[in-house]
Amino acid sequence: MLSFRVKNGKLKATSRPLPQLRAGWARVRVLLAGICNTDVEILRGYHGFKGTPGHEFVGEVADVRRVSAKVKQEWLGRRVCGEINVSCSAYGFKPVCDFCRRGLKTHCARRTVMGIVKHDGAFAEYLALPLENLHVVPKNVTDEQAVFVEPLAAACEILDQVNVKEFRSAAVLGDGKLAQLIARVVRTVIPRVVMYGKHENKLALARRAKIQTKRVRGDASDLKRIAENFRLVVEATGSPRGLALAQHIAEPRGTLVLKSTFHGAAAAETWPIVVKEITVVGSRCGPFGKAIALLQSGKLDPTPLVARTFPLLDAPAAIRFARRPGVLKVLLKQ
Question: What is the pLDDT, as a whole number, of residue 109?
Answer without folding.
Answer: 95
